[in-house]
UniProtKB/TrEMBL annotation:
The keyword Oxidoreductase applies. It is found in: Cytoplasm. Its cofactor is Zn(2+); Mg(2+); Co(2+). Belongs to the PdxA family. It catalyses: 4-(phosphooxy)-L-threonine + NAD(+) = 3-amino-2-oxopropyl phosphate + CO2 + NADH. Homodimer. Transmembrane segments: none annotated. Keywords: Cobalt, Cytoplasm, Magnesium, Metal-binding, NAD, NADP, Oxidoreductase, Pyridoxine biosynthesis, Zinc. It comes from Vreelandella glaciei. Its EC number is 1.1.1.262. This is 4-hydroxythreonine-4-phosphate dehydrogenase. Pathway: Cofactor biosynthesis; pyridoxine 5'-phosphate biosynthesis; pyridoxine 5'-phosphate from D-erythrose 4-phosphate: step 4/5. Binds 1 divalent metal cation per subunit. Can use ions such as Zn(2+), Mg(2+) or Co(2+).
Amino acid sequence: MVAGTSRADSALPVVVTTGEPAGIGPELTLMLAARGLLPPNTVAIGDPQMLRQRAIALGLDVTVVECSVGECPSGDNALPVWSVALNAPTSPGVLNPANADYVLATLAMAVDACQRGLAAAMVTAPLHKGVIIDGGHPGFTGHTEWLRDACGVDDVVMMLATDAALHAASPSWQGSGDLRVALVTTHLPLRNVADAITFERVTRISRLLEADLHCQFGIAKPRIAVCGLNPHAGEDGHLGHEELDIIIPALDALRAEGRDILGPLPADTLFTPRHLAGVDAVLAMYHDQGLAVLKYAGFGQAANITLGLPLVRTSVDHGTALDLAGKGVADPGSLKVAIALARRLATQRLSATV
């Protein structure tokens, strides 16, 4: 698979991978279809028979329509599906590593469709990293890194945003969690984070973040607030030297390029209305530093966006929720947000390139 350029067009479908088949991903898509909340021109990628069985088990009035790649028939309560067959039978809540290749095959189909101009954007339901690893892919660390490699790019940026922030060109903090948070490092053990914070990485990720805030969100000159790594942003070297040796020089270099960069700021006070006023995104140094705050502010109504790809990809803000799978009680709100955002970003991306 080679990197390509996604073509965004209102006539092209947004494709939604159904994720780990034992998790809530399949039923979230079915729920949206059953409630008439699936936007027009949206197609799922997964096993049609599994989706039909899950709909029957949950009592959902959904017509699963298997169709060829590139097609997206419409109809009341219809769920168009591009077919990928399961490797092994599945039951809600019961993981089976034999289906690791199935999950990756749905991702590969989505990427290929975007690159070939058959889809406007892709949305991913949650997968289970342990299943992928146990299923024969020991180097797998997550969607974000897999998409980076599949698309042949050097770096990508994981950014999550709450629903209100997704609708505005610039978030207006009102204490309710209107927030965009991007990450310098993603799925790393905490012990490895400090070694991964380098001058080159901070500058590359900051540039990618700024570029896609402009290209995909339509922000003319993004303002980015950057967290320090250590408590109190290192407190002048008394609580660590990463700020003095790496982060401050990197941010100074970015400011010298004319970029609107604030920080490094202590993470425990950055996420307050005073510091967030006029800020378009926060750049956190590691996963839980930024995402714990965002998910507290808007969990279930936020979306994950991968920046730096030659295509548009969004995802839900939660995991597989195996304890909820098959019970019909999972909240499809984040998937609804992610699908709507994918369409909007694809449209904005196209307008920025013409």
